[in-house]
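Hi support team,

I've been running sequence recovery on a batch of backbones for a student project. Most finish fine, but this one hangs at about 90% for roughly twenty minutes before it completes. I'm not sure whether the input is malformed or the queue is just slow. I've pasted the structure tokens below so you can try to reproduce it. Let me know if you need the job ID as well.

Thanks,
M.K.
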């Protein structure tokens, strides 16, 4: 069991080597390691700040986008309403124009009917005059008495009614 027996010289040299190693590590290893860790901590903090700024900017852009979308929808609705009103106005104008044209056609038809009626009356008068002349020429051969005259008028009226 001599392995576990403490020797004072070995203990002193072990402590001296450990202390020296500790001083060397503190001077040459811990400072660079701590510097790297601090640099990394700064970069992480900067990244977090940048991420927060980016998130805030993204939130602002999202709010702007939503506002623009709302305005676009409002403008689209306004355009649709204006188009509906314009369409309704055009419809009313077309209906009014059609009514005017229909009234013009009706007026023209009435004038044409009056013209044709006048023409027909003139034709009837012409035919009547011809009938009267032919009746008069057939009667000329005969002497007209009051009774003959009455018969001639009745006969003429019958012929006019038939034609």
């Amino acid at each position: 069991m001599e392995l576990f027996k403490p020797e004072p010289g070995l203990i002193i040299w072990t402590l001296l080597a450990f202390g020296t190693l500790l001083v060397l590590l503190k001077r040459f290893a811990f400072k660079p390691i701590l510097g790297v860790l601090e640099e990394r901590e700064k970069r992480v903090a900067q990244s977090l700040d940048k991420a927060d700024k980016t998130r805030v900017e993204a939130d602002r852009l999202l709010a702007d986008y939503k506002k623009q979308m709302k305005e676009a929808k409002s403008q689209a609705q306004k355009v649709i309403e204006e188009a509906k009103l314009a369409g309704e106005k055009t419809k009313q104008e077309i209906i009014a124009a059609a009514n005017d044209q229909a009234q013009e056609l009706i007026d023209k038809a009435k004038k044409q009917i009056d013209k044709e009626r006048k023409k027909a009356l003139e034709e009837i008068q012409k035919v009547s005059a011809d009938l009267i002349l032919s009746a008069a020429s057939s009667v000329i051969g005969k002497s007209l008495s009051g009774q003959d005259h009455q018969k001639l008028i009745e006969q003429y009226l019958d012929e006019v009614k038939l034609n």
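--
Follow-up from support: It reproduced on our side and the slowdown came from queue contention, not your input. The chain has a mean pLDDT of 86. No action needed from you.
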